[in-house]
Amino acid sequence: MFDWMRQRRSAAGTEPGSLATPITDSPTTHAAGGLDVVRRLSRSVSTLGRDAAEVRGVLEDTQRIVEAQGQAMQALSGQLSEVQRAQGHIGDSTRQTREAVERARGALAGVGAEVGGIVQTLREVSDAAGEITQIALQTRLVAFNASVEAKRAGEAGRGFGVVADAVKDLAGKVEASSKSIIGRVAALDARVDNFSRELISSSDGGGAGKSNSSIHAAFADVERDVGLISASAEQSRATTASLNERAAELEAEVRQAVQGLATAFAVSDKFLRLSEELIEQIAESGVEVEDTPFIRGAQQAAGEIGALLEQALGEGRIRTEQLFDERYQPIAGSNPAQHLAPFNELADRLFPAVQERMLQLSDKVVFCIAVDRNGYVSTHNRRYCQPQRPGDLVWNTANSRYRRIFNDRTGLASARNQRPFLLQTYRRDMGGGKFVLLKEASAPIVVNGRHWGGLRLAFNF
């Protein structure tokens, strides 16, 4: 790169008619110019990294929204399918209702025929009662004549006359009873006959002269309402089917958008990582760039934390298995979730002295924390170690960041990095939809030759 720049400057200085002053080809000039170019390149790459992080963050937000839309579309498709099934049940029920009405009509026809038989039987009863009345009348006449003849016979016919009078009285009672039966049967016959005609009218399906049947009207109302329900269900089914088709199309489009976003996300990650690697390579070259003080600070703090942990182990203040224990215990009711670890008390005593001092490195430093290899923050900077407020997720996310596991891309990369240092650019979630764009230098924390975690030093651009 530098040879190409020298050739461009040399060409510019020797071009005919050029007013530029030739560049002296001295090692000192080239070295100073080269360092200046590297620093400018570092700033440009840093800006590229910031832009890449912004793009990645926007893509991440969009991806969350699209994924939520995809889940909503899936839920909608499921609900529409349930609606269609319910509409199918309605259609089946209306068909069954119509069939039941037809069966009821048939049953009524049978009942009408039976009632007609009852009417005929009642008429036969009336006829029989009429015959009894005639017989009783004739019996009364015969008994009357016998009574008259007995009176004429005098004393000899007295016993016969008593019998004749008794027969006459009995015949009168039979006649009165028969007439009462005839009257009641006539009234019942009229009622049953009307009921029979109404049933027959209903079973015939109505028509001219039969519209006054209440049973027929009831059946007609049922059939009409069932028809309306069936038509509405069919219309709703057709509408739902159309919506389901559209929902399926939208779901496919959302899936396609998710795939496109995933591709864009991967590309943005490559750009971001490329910018980070370029910065790392420039820093490794020994050239002082804007990030160098933060890299050195992270490495120094990591070494101090490692030494403090080694000393604690040596003095028996904690056992090795406790320090490297990864069985975190959830804190009930915490939101965001917080966890306890066996080394919390030790970290609370040792880490603040180093972490708080590193905040004074520059006014750009946002935080300095030691994390284990899973991104678990036992002790954060004091300003972020506020007790959680029940039910206040936004405040907790921004102010209560200790005892938490940050296992996102940046957090895990910093926690598990074992190279001399790692530079990353990312958006920090502050809760409530607020994000802060940061750059972070991290260095591994090693305890007695064993990788424990990383020291994360985040700073503003």
Could you explain the architecture of this structure?
This protein is an alpha+beta fold and 461 residues long. It has two domains: 41-268, Helix Hairpins (Orthogonal Bundle), CATH 1.10.287.950; 291-459, PAS domain (Beta-Lactamase), CATH 3.30.450.20. It has nine helices and eight strands. Strands 3-8-7-6 form a four-stranded antiparallel sheet. A two-stranded antiparallel sheet has the order 1-2. It has a two-stranded antiparallel ribbon with strand order 4-5. A hairpin with a 2-residue loop joins strand 6 and strand 7. The protein is rod-shaped. The model is unreliable at 1-30 and 206-211 (pLDDT under 50).
Helix-strand category: alpha+beta
Number of self-contained structural domains = 2
How much of the residues is beta strand, in percent? 5-15%
pLDDT average, as an integer?
76
N-to-C order of helices and strands: HHHHHHEEHEEHEHEEE
Strand order of the largest sheet: 3-8-7-6
From the spread of the alpha carbons, the general shape counts as rod-shaped
Number of continuous helical runs: 9
The name of the CATH architecture of the largest domain is Orthogonal Bundle
Draw up the topology in text.
Elements: H1 2-14, H2 27-153, H3 158-203, H4 214-284, H5 292-314, H6 320-323, E1 329-330, E2 339-340, H7 344-358, E3 365-372, E4 376-377, H8 393-399, E5 404-405, H9 409-416, E6 422-431, E7 434-447, E8 450-459
Antiparallel strand pairs: 1-2, 3-8, 4-5, 6-7, 7-8
Helix pairs in contact: 2-3, 2-4, 3-4, 5-7
